[in-house]
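This part of the workshop introduces the protein records we will be handling. Getting from the letters to the tokens is the skill we practise here. An example says more than a description, so a record of this kind follows:
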Amino acid sequence: MNIFPYRVRFTKTGKLRFLSHHDLMRLFERAFRRSGLPLRMTEGYNPHPILSFPTALGLGIESLDEILEVELTAWTPPAKIEQALAVQLPEGVKLSKVEAFARKDRSAIDYVEYEATVPKEADLVAGVREFLAKKEAWIERKSDKGGKKVEIRRYVLALEAEPGKVLMRVRVTDQGTAKPEEVLRSIGLDPAAGVRIKKTYTEVGTR
């Protein structure tokens, strides 16, 4: 079987920022089924399109640069894929680019960039300076399975405070990454206190 992988970049904004990763997967699966594109399907009793997201976006975070990868069974011009898929997507999810890539190269995310809009009265310059001066920054990460200590300083490549916003570049590795909310707490800001986080860029590499 011929296999042709494509990378789809899209935005996820507005109310759809509250769509879970699982629901986003289902949304694209239905959209691709309706598009009529020659999808490569899984085998078994309940076949579905082969889709993957290199990273999962946190609930409530907007994104201007999300990535989805899909496999087709026939070569299809990227412009045709974009045209067929775009009309099947709801408001809040918009395609920005479709491109082919080599299947032999394992796709991976090198880093992502975030912009956090914060209350203008928040003075975070000192917190940013203190964080960047640290060799280690340990946080408590909680989950359904309990809590664990995680060192996040090694993942933060860049961090900057501007009036009304915080900008950050965060490394993504096989061993883990830092969540933007964790970085904000580490510089003295409560993410729940009128803060809105947006992913602005995703850098793709191979590993």
Observations:
- Residues 21-35 form the longest helix (15 residues).
- The chain has four helices and eleven strands.
